Amino acid sequence: MVLKVPNDRVWDVTVGGRIENVTDQDVFPDLFLEALVRAGEISVMQFNRPGWPHTISIVVRLTASRKEDAELQAQKLVLPVLLSVAKDLLGAGPFGWTLSVAANPASNVTS
Length: 111
Description:
The chain has helices at 27-39, 67-90; strands at residues 9-19, 43-48, 55-64, 97-105. By secondary structure, it is α+β, with helices and mostly antiparallel strands.
């Protein structure tokens, strides 16, 4: 008999998002945070207001077996929210965006 033991661990994933042509430092972060909370599947551990108008950084907590899986999961959860908020602000026209993800083992987590 072979038992499979899950090898999941908790990760804090820093997600950096940048949307071109968003110039309102007040509206964009607030809409983005509200949309993340409404998404329900995302546990936001830290939310950094942008240092310049169209760049934002958040830390989300996820469970995954590997660093790459945590980063991919964060990208799949956060990117649609980021793009949705950008479309609400900028309309249907084209816009540029970038997204970065970097996972680290979560600190202060007890099993």
